[in-house]
Design goal:
2 copies of one chain form a homodimer. Chain A contains 16 helices and 38 strands. Chain A is of the alpha+beta class and 686 residues long. The first copy, chain A, has 2 domains: 279 residues, Distorted Sandwich (Beta-galactosidase, Chain A, domain 5), CATH 2.70.98; 278 residues, TIM Barrel (Alpha-Beta Barrel). Chains A, B: InterPro entries: Aldolase_TIM, GH-type_carb-bd, GH97_C, GH97_catalytic, GH97_N, Glycosyl_hydrolase_97.
Chain lengths: 686, 686
């Protein structure tokens, strides 16, 4: 049925049928200014050309223009730009209202309800090139992309840059991290006036003066470069495609489509997170059966490396030493964690780390790691090892070994592999088509291709991928469900050695920016609240628990050391209980960078879980429990900040664990300490 | 002597001699933190590396840090970046105090007094690459460049980007135009907080909160791409090299040097203009005799095209029609203008304008232009035609005809050619090494090469170049003196058809931004104050006169139509009198974007000229005349705004012309109307 609906849509919007479709859709006011509204009529997009034939679009919400007429087009490295001298040749519109299921996720069922407008622009002189721009307008946002048909004067597009503008009509606040070659998106967020943003990565979240929240991002980044958003002047932004080593940032033969340029529009911050346009603008699952992956938690050999007490290589001692790994397997088995991540297990770490990875072997264990014995030991305990493929920034080298590496992982009972792309060389190393060395950006076209090659090979071996230092997330988990999670933000490791450590507001920033793109393997749960050399983490203990609800990922680590958890067993219970797969998700409240409260319902169960995190301020918030099933009783197992808890003092460890009986008719006051949080399991009473 | 001093400097700073030089210079505090101060000791530069081996420099002025430690380095498309893991291998310092003469210019004699520090950085691992960074510290600013020696692991540098940072320690105001592929720098200036600049072209001028003025720019852009300045966050900027069609933005074999990164430092706006570091950081004249060029004024077939009453091609009628050109020759001869610019004289305009120029012929007159007859007619009248080579944005096509075009110009008595690079294709069209089409930026490496090829060919034919829609000016007129002027900013033509027209503050912005780079052929003097369709120009008549003093160019147009000058003969007298070559220049006062007053002394004469322009505010300023020769009497011929003059009304034409006798002991009150100006000739009394 789903397939049938999609086929119907495809038919409705097919370009050759444009004239027919035109007749079947509501007449528009002016053939030169096509418009399309959201199903609820609140958002509308208008398309036109100006006196110089520049294609322009604008966006209104509630009758108020949000995006002033903004240009569309391309620069090429080998041809005149497509930006002026266009006329609108045809238009077509259609509607979709369908639902689909995530195999795992924040919500089980996703509704996709939108109206679509396709506009064909044709150059009125010279080359007579055409480009289609397709707009999909949802009740909570807009996506649009370019579709460049096959045509005589554009056989291969060598795109120097995409010239898509976003001219906001109001100033306001913005939350952003810089577009940068360095650091793989691992920044804390800037909060500035919109009119002070320089070059920003996406998602870029803004709150206009009138209160409208907008998150700019992209969807379905396939065989194309990711984009940054460059403020041009005032509150006008434009796309800046992320570079490639070749002359063009993107090289594609026609026909092809670009990623969707997206903007979620909402009255408030929670509405940003509740939007599904990112997933809806991706294609359905193209892999088929992905039942080999089960959402689950894991522990592993990781935090001790970041603390510096063990190494990825042999110094000061190998974290992946067989005996040490057994210790983690024992801990996982005892506490019900299905996975044990092992980093530093393979050949190469003593020579290749931060040295471009060319010596890493993905099927050859280091001398200290007995792969056969550990695979058997884990299996016997009902646990599996999560593999680790650190490329050291050399994806070409990794691709050479890709099948061997995945085969090795599968042969050792692994169904999840964590990949990594750390390099201090700046860009990723790639061997070019003629054997020449090339350097590619983490978010460039080559990287977009590479990650999909990895996913397809992993799928062949029934393996899911958790990519670190990855390309940005653009919702491709819908199409490639085995891309279960990734990093792509400043994670817990910065609380080991970061200068500075993650600020208390970090996660409240992330929820409304980075997390709009998709899951993140943040690795929460460091209940010791202690980084390298005994330095304090800027969090309370309860907040570490809340992060399991706040930061969605279908693979979720309990990142601390077993010996540390042994000292925090009461709190650890929440980590043991909390699911990693959800039937439903509600954002109960929130302000970007200040605080947020999530309620999520366990998939395949009756329990709800609540997580709230704040910033450096103490905060008290009342939440209604009307998300609970009406008339049903729940035991609220509450893990909250102690009354004197404070991230700035040793009282960061003050945690109160208490139980209350509640129903959907109740409300609850959540008190967050400075740097604090609260985690609650609402256990359905039988 | 000059040559001898330079040779001595070269010897002192030669890298192989670094160890020796070290001994001969003053001992520095710390071998790992070399420092160098300006001759007056006020400015100092410190160089160091951080814990990750990042090369850093910082700049202080008066003991206060102005530029916080800022990174240096490169990204490559084919190799690991050069940005970390460096140590300082050696350093050397030297001093220069010399003077040299401009063949024409704002000042006859230029003093070059600076201290130099050369630091060699070497990678401590992997490739062991080295780079030298050379700092020259003047009393009024700092320049530094990279010098990449020949070395085994860097034979050819494929530069993806230059990673030079400028981390300002204070916020303040900034005046900037955007870095953009479009519009060839033809913008009005933005005035925003420094912390709100996005991607800026250079010169970028800022005024820090403590009053320090800084202009960031570059010098000696040879065989390299120009740079934009991207604000990264807060008040930190970095270089973003302007793209090339090829993969790398710059491709250079080692050894090579980059352009100088420059910052003029001043207590006030006038001090920015008075700096000579832009010229001093360029190499001396390498062309030899350039006596074929004489600074001079010109009239020509130009404004009527912008008004739309004549065409470059045959519609509505050719401006370059023989009879019309004769009219201009007659006018020039009658009023003493040596040059007559003729646009639209050659084959191609009817088909090639805004169509990439591939049909332009630079040695074939259009049917309406009798080249032989007009050359003879002009010569007979003691006038010469200024040639015009509009490439339509196809420099490759132009290069194919370059020698023929210059030979044609020379054969027709032309000693100045105005070139042009207008295109609506976005970038310049270039035929690549294998015949493939490529698109290059106006400020990219190819353009830098192209302009020098044009200059060298022009010099062979004893022709000077006035480049429009050019690469940015970086002081190369010192090395290639026949590059006499250029455009590269929003000129007078915007007052014909611009939407909007140039604002009253435009020129007060330009003086302290664009004009710091070098001369501009702005084409002032539209005394009719009337654009296309009778629309008003936002200027008073007196201001049009003042621009001849304010905006330096050794070729200076009287841009209005002869029939318009006939109605303004009294004011026109100033245009006839004002020189285009100066012995000395003083900036008497000024604030960026608000107002400025220049006094310039005629080269080879006794007269001084004063020009002051303001913004939309009326303004009264007292200036001392102590620039005049002491004890000497002058007749001040004053062209000032009428008492009720106002750019917003028909009173923009109100001008008062009066004479006074003055001496150096006098002061004078300058009253500027809204949108106004004042022009004064101080004629030495015999």
């Amino acid at each position: 049925m789903l397939r049938g609906l999609w086929a119907l849509c495809a038919l409705l919007v097919a370009v050759p049928a444009a004239a027919q479709v035109e007749q079947s859709t509501t007449a528009r006011a002016d053939a030169n200014a096509p418009t399309i509204a959201s199903p609820d009529g609140r958002i509308s997009v208008s398309v036109t050309t100006d006196g110089d034939g520049r294609p322009l679009y604008s966006v209104s919400r509630g009758g108020k223009q949000i995006i002033a007429p903004s240009a569309l087009g391309f620069l090429f490295t080998d041809a005149a730009k497509m930006q002026r001298n266009f006329r609108i040749e045809s238009k077509a519109s259609s509607s979709v209202d369908t639902s689909w299921e995530q195999p795992w996720g924040e919500w089980k069922t996703i509704r996709d309800r939108h109206n679509e407008l396709r506009v064909r622009f044709k150059e009125s002189k010279d080359l007579g090139r055409v480009m289609d721009v397709v707009f999909r307008v949802f009740d909570d946002g807009v996506g649009f992309r370019y579709e460049l048909p096959e045509q005589p004067n554009l056989k291969t597009a060598h795109i120097a840059d995409e010239m898509t503008e976003f001219a906001l009509t109001q100033d306001g606040e913005a939350w952003w991290i810089p577009g940068s070659e360095w650091n793989r998106d691992e920044y804390q967020w800037n909060r500035t006036p919109i009119s002070s943003v320089p070059l920003a990565h996406t998602p870029l979240t803004v709150k206009l003066k009138d209160g409208t929240h907008i998150a700019f991002h992209e969807a379905a980044l396939v065989d194309y470069s990711g984009t940054w958003l460059q403020r041009v002047e005032g509150t006008k932004f434009k796309t800046v495609l992320i570079p490639s080593a070749g002359g063009a940032k993107v090289v594609r033969g026609t026909p092809f489509v670009t990623p969707w340029r997206t903007m979620i529009l909402s009255d408030d911050a929670p509405g940003l997170y509740m939007s599904h346009i990112e997933l809806n603008l991706n294609e359905p699952n193209k892999l088929g059966d992905v039942s080999y992956f089960k959402p689950s938690k894991y522990v592993g050999v990781w935090w001790e490396m970041h603390l510096g007490t063990a190494g990825w290589g042999s110094t000061p001692k190998p974290g992946a030493a067989t005996a040490n790994v057994k210790r983690y397997i024992d801990f996982a088995a005892k506490h019900g964690f299905p996975g044990v991540l092992v980093e530093g297990w393979n050949v190469g770490w003593d020579t290749e780390w931060f040295a471009n990875g060319k010596g890493f072997q993905f099927d050859t264990p280091a001398p200290w790691f007995d792969a056969e014995a550990l695979a058997a030991y884990a299996k016997n305990k009902g646990v599996q090892i999560i593999g680790h493929h650190e490329t050291g920034g050399s994806p070409s080298h990794y691709e050479d070994q890709l099948e061997r590496g995945m085969a090795f992982a599968a042969a050792h009972g692994e169904s999840v592999v964590k990949t990594g792309y750390v390099t201090d060389a700046g860009q990723l190393e790639r061997v070019g088509p003629n054997g020449e060395p090339l350097r590619e950006w983490h978010d460039g076209q080559f990287s977009a291709q590479h990650h999909l090659r990895v996913l397809e090979m992993a799928h062949k071996y029934r393996i899911a991928i958790d990519a670190h230092e990855p390309i940005k997330d653009t919702g491709l988990r819908r199409t490639y469900p085995n891309w279960v999670s990734r990093e792509g933000a400043r994670g817990q490791e910065y609380n080991a050695w970061g200068e500075p450590k993650n600020a208390p507001e970090h996660e409240a920033n992330m929820v409304f920016t980075r997390m709009l793109a998709g899951p993140m393997d943040f690795t929460p749960g460091v209940l010791s609240l202690t980084g390298k050399g005994g330095t304090p983490i800027l969090s309370t203990e309860a907040k570490q628990l809340a992060l399991y609800v706040v930061l969605y990922s279908p693979v979720q680590m309990a990142a601390d050391l077993p010996e540390n958890y042994a000292k925090h067993m009461a709190a650890f219970q929440f980590i043991k209980d909390v699911p990693t797969d959800w039937e439903d998700t509600r954002v109960l409240n929130g302000e970007v960078g200040d605080y947020v409260t999530f309620a999520r319902k366990q998939r395949g169960g009756q329990d709800w879980y609540l997580g709230a995190v704040g910033d450096e301020q103490a905060r008290s918030m009342e939440v209604k429990l009307d998300f609970l099933a009406p008339g049903k009783a729940y035991e609220a197992q509450i893990y909250r900040d102690g009354d004197d808890a404070d991230y700035r003092t040793e009282k960061r460890h003050a945690i109160m664990i208490e139980k209350r009986r509640v129903t959907a008719a109740d409300a609850m006051t959540l008190r967050l300490a400075p740097g604090g949080g609260v985690a609650i399991r609402f256990k359905a009473v039988k």
